[in-house]
Amino acid sequence: MVPNPSPSSSSAPTLSHAGFAADRLSVAPMLDWTDRHCRFLHRLLSRRALLYTEMVTTGALLHGDVARHLRMNAEEHPVALQLGGSEPADLAHCARLGQQWGYDEINLNCGCPSERVQRGAFGACLMAEPALVADCVKAMVDVVDVPVTVKHRIGIDKVESYEFVRDFVGTVSQAGCRTFIVHARNAWLKGLSPKENREIPPLRHALVHRLKHDFPELRFSINGGIQHDEQVHEHLRLLDGVMVGREAYHNPWWLARWDSEFFGDAPSALTREDVEARMCAYMAREAAEHGTPWWNIARHMLGLRHGLPGARRWRQVWSDHRLKTRPAHEVMALAHERAPAQAA
């Protein structure tokens, strides 16, 4: 078990560098993607950003393999555990587990629109029950010393009024949540797939800015459609944080600029080849300690050469199932033969 870090106030964000909170920039929780191997990669690229787990359901922790779901690498901090659930007592138990395993924040998912998640009575459908969400938050706040946060949408289905999300935030904040991560789209609970829910409902960033204006004492991070430095800077003028999702996964090298661009660090001397070599060493470590096949880890770094000449050939080597019996360092050497390093 990972040692528990020093407790912090449940109302305070995890602090990072130069007075900036870690949630100034964060990588979104993404199902099947932001596992501990992905987070190890992202931490190599940014020492400052806040990282999130995939959503872990309360049922998985209450009835499944806790270590499999909560094991993390010591290098990942600061890292937040996102929970999916709607029973206050179950969430309290799982939040306590999260703190015991060393997570720096516990986040409640009130934003996932998938019908499978709705059948479990959690995710975006919880926005229709702010009093229940408040009960869930209070139950967690009462048993942990780390921040409890909520990730949600700006509305559900055809409910597009600002008052809906304003009242949701107002109710939940009274239970002790001081930080809200807002995906600036509505969630359609029927008729759209999760992918379509990330693309079809229009982005309305102005509603998140308005929440910060109306609740200046709370912290707000914005999520949805953010892909460039300029967008991040613009939102940080008005909000406390920015959360990036798929762009961070598909183009992870962007994270290598974050610490200097948004946290005031000196520019990093790290190269893509340095990152690849460190990931290769990590693959060897994981194989020795946990029997993890290298390809379960390599899949997360396939975007590392995004936009460079030869990137496709490089990806093809790391994705070649015929090479699965070869050690990772040999696969890396083959990838470099097929696609020699290019200047970034």
Summarize the structure.
With 344 residues, this protein is α/β, with parallel strands linked by helices. It contains 16 helices and eight strands. Keywords: Flavoprotein, FMN, NADP, Nucleotide-binding, Oxidoreductase, RNA-binding, tRNA processing, tRNA-binding.
Descriptive report:
The protein is of the alpha/beta class and 344 residues long. 41% of the residues lie in helices and 15% in strands. The chain folds into two domains: 22-262, TIM Barrel (Alpha-Beta Barrel), CATH 3.20.20; 272-338, Four Helix Bundle (Hemerythrin (Met), subunit A), CATH 1.20.120. The protein has helices at residues 36-45, 58-63, 66-70, 88-100, 115-119, 130-141, 162-173, 194-197, 205-214, 229-236, 246-250, 255-262, 272-290, 294-298, 311-318, 328-338, and strands spanning 25-27, 50-57, 79-84, 105-110, 148-156, 179-187, 219-223, 241-244. The protein has an eight-stranded parallel beta barrel, surrounded by six helices. Helix 6 (130-141) packs parallel to helix 7 (162-173) and helix 15 packs antiparallel against helix 16. The protein is globular, with a radius of gyration of 20 Å.
Secondary-structure arrangement, i.e. CATH architecture of the largest domain: Alpha-Beta Barrel
Strand content: 5-15%
What is the terminal-to-terminal distance?
Answer: 39 Å
Query: Measured on Cα atoms, how large is the radius of gyration?
Result: 20 Å
Number of distinct beta strands: 8
Can you tell me the CATH superfamily of the largest domain?
Aldolase class I
Continuous helix count? 16
Keywords: Flavoprotein, FMN, NADP, Nucleotide-binding, Oxidoreductase, RNA-binding, tRNA processing, tRNA-binding
Organism: Xenophilus arseniciresistens
GO molecular function, one term: flavin adenine dinucleotide binding
Family: Belongs to the dus family. Belongs to the Dus family. DusA subfamily.
